[in-house]
Model the fold of this input.
Amino acid sequence: MMVMVTFISYNKILQFNKSIEALMRTNVLKNKIVAAGSILQDAENGQHAFLITNDSNFLQPFNGAEQRSNLVFVSLDSLISDNAEQQENLKKLKILVAERYLLLNKSLELLQYNLPQSFIDSGLLKGKSKMNEIRKHVALMLQLEDKLLDRRTNVRDDTANLTPNFLLTLSLFSLLAITVFFFRLQNETSVRISLTESNVLLQAAKDQIEASETKFRTLSEVIPHMIWTATSNGNRNFFNKYFLDYTGFTFKELNGSGWQRIIFPDDKEADLALWHDSIKKGEDFKHEMRIRHHSGTYRWHLSHGIAQKDNDGVIVGWIGTNTEIEDQKKFTEVLETKVKERTAELEKRKIFVETILETSQSYITVYTKDSTLLDLNNASETFLGKKKENLIGKKILELLPNAEGIKAEADLQSAFNGNYIHNKAFQSSVTGRYLENYIAPLKDEEGNIYAALLVANDVTNIIVKQIEIETVNQQLQLQNQIFELAESIANFGSYSWNITTGELKYSDNLFRLLDCDPQEFIPSFEKFLSFIHPDYLQQVIQSGEQTRQTGVLIETPYLIISKTGIFKYFRSSGKFTGEGDHRILIGTVQDISNDVAASKELQTKNLELEDANAELASFNYVASHDLQEPLRKIQGFSNRILEMDGERLSVTTKDYFNRIQAAARRMQNLIESLLSFSRTNTTEIIFVKTDLNQIVTDVKAALQETIKEKNAVIESQQLPILNAVPILMQQLFLNIIDNALKYSKHDVTPLIKITAEKVNIDEFAGQLKRYGMFWKIAIRDNGIGFEQQYEHKIFEIFQRLHGKTDYEGTGIGLAICKKIVQAHNGAITATGQLGVGATFTFLLWDNNKS
Amino acid sequence: MNHDALYLLIADDDDDDRLFFKEAIEASKVKTVLTMVNDGVELMNYLTKPEIHLPNLVFLDLNMPRKSGIECLIEIRNNNKFKDLSIAIYSTSAMENDIEETFIKGANIYIKKPNDFQVLKNILAKVITINWQYHTSGLNKENFILNIE
Done:
């Protein structure tokens, strides 16, 4: 029985050990969990601090935090290998932590891209919520561990209590037994032996208990946390080495309620209240308070006390730890203050930036890796035409369900592969407007791409303007080309001259006109003058000055000597554009050398013509006077002979003299006709108002002898007054009427009728070189007429239809009439009937300019 | 000095024309004293001689060498001494501008030299019987050119 008891106690002791171990493990585990939490907390704090201050020093806790966390997790893994539930929890925790790290990195990333604050904020918010989750989870795990700790503590307590009690019982029992057996063994040495044995066993057990106690003590001395135990009513009865070292007090000083002195005065009241509360309620005690370091400073600690309960649930004691959280607390405090300040500032800026963002005309959208819309700004909302809520979460192809969407999706995918896309202006097939977009991948803290940012701008105005400018440019280019071509064809160049700055520009062809290569030199007024012929230099300079002052360009030709020494006549034209200081003279320079040459030639020819005409006029005069003079004499003297000695002469002789006279007369007529004919050439065609009625009267007067002789009657309608050459009109009417009288029938009284009517001829007909209003004048006689077939012949010079002895005539008369009529822009025709009469009709243009 | 005779002067460079003229004048019944000069220079020389009896009527040919008829006409009309002198232009020319010019320059009448002697006689008879005093006033071109009815 003793053995049994011993075994049981041995087991119990083992159990006790195990429970201590478990307790330790749990403690360690807890610490590890807390550590994991604190690493993450450090990281978060660091990242927040960095976000606020941009001081990369704060990132130290952040950098590598994840690795450290992972190490912790690894050690945790081994610690919880027996606890399935905790393993599960750990798994979850790992995930949460990982996610948290992700978020932290993301936030950093976002900061890099200068994305709107709302994104960072949302990141931060997510982080915060994630952190809460983690804390909860950690708390859960800790709770579990605490429970475990409780259990194990209980177990230990139980065993601890049980063991001593048990041992006590045992020892008492054994004592009893020994006593009993002693008396019994007084008779029996075996009983004594067993007693000694049981004593030995007892000792062994005691030793073991002590050993485990020592183990516990050793452990507690080693652990770098303050560990304390207390009685059930709260009197602290144990402080581990660390505790004492830290506070600098001795056990005696702290024992009982002396430990209260280590509490920061301000925290004391709260702490004690809470402690007493815990004791009363039997609940676990947790409190943050400032504890005195042996150096005199107070540091924040987390005090945690767990009640040790026996089998009946009665508290038999307390065990607790104080973990220093000073740095964290301080850090957190400072951080919190800074964060508060910063948040306020950021809030202000956030609103400001948000306003800018939301009023931005750019379409800003964010898509997740599966091309789902994550977020968008107001402009995008308007563009897509739906509310934000209805858009977020939709796939891009749902939002842009056409070729654009397909392209956008492809671009997004490309971005998710790490590419930065820039699409220059393209036309939306939906709206017809021109858009330009940029797509950039968004990376988290680890550099993993988790989303893509799409920013699009409506550049329609720019594009339209560009197209307009392009079109205008093309037109201008075309115009320029046409102009340049025109310049070279028409032999002129152009220039623009800024009078104020003196800047002078020449067109390519102007250079060519000067026999230079285009843009061979920089044009200037001085350079221009260097081309001018010395004789014209003065004129040009004066002209230039005048232009500068009056703003009017006088176009006077001048002579230049080209680069290759060729003399050319130039004429400049110019016109001012612009105002005041911006006045620019633009104009052309034309090579008029050909014109000048032609003009000179014309002048020369004119002079020659004038000379020729003068010669001709004098010739005419000679002809009219000197040629006729001998004829007069012939006639005259023949006449005198006949008169004086007519009776004495034979008939034949008389006849001969008559023939001589006749011949002389013919000669005279011919000369006179020729003179008339030539006069139609040399007479200057000056149209003046001519009354044809007067002309007829004059002609009648001139022919009065013949008219009287033949008893001719000349009837005339009212004839017009028109612009004509009077002397030629006289000739015209004279010739025709004279003919009518000449070719009259012997036995019939000549009747000559003159008619006039106005006609409109609207196309070129016959000989006419004009059209419009004409005066149609007809002179009809009742003479011998002519055969119509000879109509054209009679107007030819020297052509006659009769022999000269039948009818006098030179054959020039009608040719002269034709010439005269043509000089008046008219035409003449004749109709005749042999034996009936003839009608001569001529058209005189009514529009001859006087 | 023959007081009731008409003093005539002809200035013509053509011998034959002078001959015709002389014969035509002689055929007339009017009592005349005829002087003949060969050209304009001779004419002016003669007219400016102080001792001569100024002619009543000068027949002036236009085409004369040295000094033309026009020139003489101008000179005569510029000289106050010859204000009573009537001038008949006696020319072959029928040129409009000649007629015009002589009219403007102050000739009294324009006679175109006829071919026919008979016609010449008639003309001259007519001319020399004109009462020149009345004829010099109210001149117009119609009357200027002598026409024989």
